Amino acid sequence: MEKFVGQKREEHSAANDGSTKPLRKKLKVENDEKVKEEEFDPEDDEDTALAEFSHPIPWQKIEAEGLDCDYALLFSKEEADRLFRQLEEEVVYSTGQEAKVQVFGKVYNIPRKQATYGDEGLTYTYSGVKRFACPWTQALEYIRDAVTKTTGHTFNFVLINRYKDGQDHMGEHRDDERELDPLCPIASVSLGAARDFIFRHRDARGKESSRQIEPVKLELAHGSLLLMNSPTNTFWYHSLPVRKKVLVPRINLTFRRIVQPSQK
Ligand SMILES: O=C(O)CCC(=O)C(=O)O
């Protein structure tokens, strides 16, 4: 039997009204004490906007043998809706070689869209393909800084996966590439459709598995943050399976700290 870690789904379902608003709005008190709404100005308002993320948020601990994760709702539904729409405008997804994976020497199209952003000059090689970091966009910087304020960890790279609906998926894998700083958790932010996310212990995979260990199953909600702490990615594979009933898109951002060989 799968171990299910439950959350409240209905409060965090994604909006689909298609409208585009600025990332965040500020309230300005005028001389006559009337409160006026102003457009978000990224130059002067970012610290104020991010201040709320320095307050503790309720974390849910998810533990099993060799698995250590923390889960929380980071963004309100309204803010998660706005961030989703902004990412839809800003993120440019890979095409060509970067939109493929290599498994045992064979090249496949990936069943979702992918993009990589981060600090200048960083690269990340996984599934046999080298990815280059595009410069951070405004929304990505905002989300990255919110994750940093909440967790105390800094990140220099983000892998973005966009699932157009429940047919798009990600197969079982571990994020254990040599470039990843082992002391920094992988911070996974989800926006859009809620999707199941399954961990499976490396000794309990396949018919010939040596041990019986229950998989750990979560539902990643709109606006949520999942921290995969060490040593989770050594012992546990994770996947985002097909869910045919899911008809709306989802964007997942995994913030990582890359250490390039020259820095090691
Ligand atoms: O979309 C997800 O939640 C899974 C992402 C993932 O497994 C990865 O980026 O390694």
Automatic annotation (TrEMBL):
Chain ranges of the Fe2OG dioxygenase domain: 154-259
GO cellular component, one term: nucleoplasm
Enzyme class: oxidoreductase
Chain intervals with Acidic residues compositional bias: 38-48
Matches recorded under InterPro entries: AlkB-like (IPR027450), AlkB-like_sf (IPR037151), ALKBH2 (IPR032852), Oxoglu/Fe-dep_dioxygenase_dom (IPR005123)
Region (Disordered): 1-48
GO biological process: DNA alkylation repair
EC number from the UniProt entry: 1.14.11.33
Name under which the protein is recorded: DNA oxidative demethylase ALKBH2
Species of origin: Sphaeramia orbicularis
